Amino acid sequence: MAVVTIDAVSVAFPRRRDPVLRGITLDIAPGEQVLVLGSSGAGKSTLLQLVSGVIPHSVVAAVDGSVTVGGSDTRDSSVVELSRAVGLLAQDPSSGVCLPTVAEEIALPLENRGVDPAAISGRIDAALAAAGVGPLRERRTAQLSGGEGQRVALAAALVAEPAVLLLDEPTSMLDAEGVRAVRSAIAASVARYSPAVILVEHRLDEFAGRAGVGGLPQRSIVLDAAGAVAADGPTREVLAAHAGALIAAGCWLPFESELDAVFGAAFGAAAGTVSGATRDTAAGLDSPAVRAGLLAFAAEHATIASSTSASSSGAPVLSTTGLAVSRERRPRRSHAPLHPVLTGIEFDVHPGEIVALLGANGAGKSTLLLTLAGLLAPAAGVVAGARAGMVFQNPEHQFVAHTVAGEIGFGLPAGPATDALVARLLDDHGLAELADQHPHRLSGGEKRRVSVAAMLAHERPVLLADEPTFGLDRRATIGVMAALRRTAADGTAVVFSSHDLRTVATLADRAVVVAHGRVVSDGAVFDVLRDAAALEAAHIELPPLVEWLLDNVGSDAGVRRALERLDAEVGASGAAADRAAAGRDAAGRAAAGRDATARDAGERSDDPATLAAAP
Amino acid sequence: MTAADSAHAATRLAGSPLARRNPTVKFVLLFVVSLALLFVFDPFTSAALYVIALVGVVAGSGIRPRVLLLGHLPFVGVAVGLVLVNALSRPGAEVARLGVLRVTEEGLEVGAALGLRTLVIGVLSLGFIVSTDGVRLMTSLHQHARLGLRVTYAVLAGYRTLEELPREWQLIRHAHAVRAGLDSRGRPRSGVAAFGRAGFALLVVSLRRAERLAIALESRGLGLTPRTTWRPVALTTTDGAFAAGVLAVLATVLAASAALGVLRGAEVLAG
Question: What ipTM is given for this predicted complex?
Fold first, then answer.
């Protein structure tokens, strides 16, 4: 008897031409774990909302077919009633935490299910311990960091032991240590009481950890761009059959599957000696074909210019001396020392250089960027240099105008020069067709491109970016990387923070690692990535692919070239695919009340109340 | 009860006598005293009640002097305004003349009464706020005043949203300042329009957060029955004695001031 039955379900949102999901039929057995794959806008989050009952009860949508969860039809049971069977972990941790203290937050699902009060305290402790945040029990939720909030929300989703666990990008906010904690909490729950799990996740390598594909749910469902089930079966088989299409569509895949797909086709036959049988047992980096293919990609650097040839020359455009940074503000007439999160920062940034800022959650990366941007006063020391531009983690915080074109032209003098600049930036960033759209209505990847383009319009010598690829699918990530690379090629210095070391290794010239309140490593990006002690101090784990390339490719330019070539496998990798995606999004968007594209891409947006409020 | 629970209970017990009283009882008493004061229009009764309330709050809640003083500021402001308006505008026996303005005895008296009434309500509210935990208040209002769960948790979730507002506001102001023009001192220019834009961004961000919070509360099963309460708020005989004591003091003061002939009701307004 299935715990979730989805029977011939199609979902259409009002004022959207095409359905988001069509003809979905699925059974999920008790204890079965399922990974949902698909590009942005394919309807992954919509599928989770169908199972939780949020669709159709809280989000208006036309639903054909029936969804049964734990024996109740979701049309007849409210979200509250369905919650007896369903636990939900939403993307944004601040949305998952409702009450003033952690203990009360975790107690709420138990109280609601009528658990004996005498048993509640012990279960709070157990759930927090399983999520690796036992010591946070008496903390106020307002004081939690993003990563802590996400783990508390996970504990709240797990504590009542729901028969179905819905996980919508559970690791998006987390550093390596946080991902490990989330992974082990989910594994512990699965081992303890065997819930059915439906997982939507961009960061599959991080989520799976060293176990690789074996660390992922054993069953996978692929949603195609039209919202139909393109594949449903054992994860290894589904990935083997569909990885190529998923890569082309811009999805993140486990790197082994990506490599098998890329090199299975291109090199499997050429390698000759590799028999089919061998390929079945040796996947990913264990496969000779993959190794040979990666080395062949890397070797191209000798013949084709790669983007590592950075021109980080000339006088620094930004430099710090004895800088200490803190979010606290010194009260007037007080000489009490502040408590800086980072101290003793000596840091020069040169024109055309791309610098990655690495560190654990809460290490002070965002505070440092805000200080470099001149938005926070230094706690000590000085920041010298011209005024820097900055792109924030959530693009919505930056938006000030009611059209994309207005957003990009904001703060510039009106005139033909500005008009020409805006037109050029719209073109450069694949936004021309969206020029008249409201920025808040775009998908996550589009919002990010608008925020970058709007900052670039000011032509500052330094561009700072806080997690610029956070929550994006692979195509959008590649688009942002291309924009930053172009910016640097024009002579602007770029400093960005990131948890994604593959992006860092593909994009950055230089890396700076912060940990324990100071800079622990600063140098050429591949030297820093080889600095095991610094990475250890910052709780940073190298992705296996990057680690293998660093160990096996002789030159840094080769490592960079191999990573760039892998990115080139995504669609046509560039403008053509971007435009195709933008066109599809624009068509679907029309006047979408609820934009599933945006949901998938990291910002839950476009709620009608908000848009109605937009003048 | 586990060790952690007793530790939690211990921190509460270590709190002030007022913190240990039932939040609903305190809330109702605050309401009753405020209501009774609506019928008192002489400064002597109000002054006596203010002194008693002040002593009671300081002794009962252990409020820090700084918090007490700062908390008084808005109420003192309103009180001074009430005295001035009444003293200058109310007809009656003139005690002083400031240019064209007459200060009347009746005006001073009514103004002082109203001002002191504001201070009584102010100091009692301060005592209530510093001695009452938000979650306990909401739990207690649900348990003892039959307030619906959807209301009490909506208030708590709303409080969370409010707690986040300063941080969001700061972020938005920073994000907007990056692209703002600079003033003559080299700082990002800010004006009414910039505030408006930041306000709109805050509205958008907050509405989305509120929507997500609502879904989160539902998906945690808020509204299922039967439900239990992890740490129910006690309603004890001590709370009853506390309520009786407060009401007795109120009645005694009113009776005494009536006996002394200083108690005035709303009839003074008719003059």
Answer: 0.80
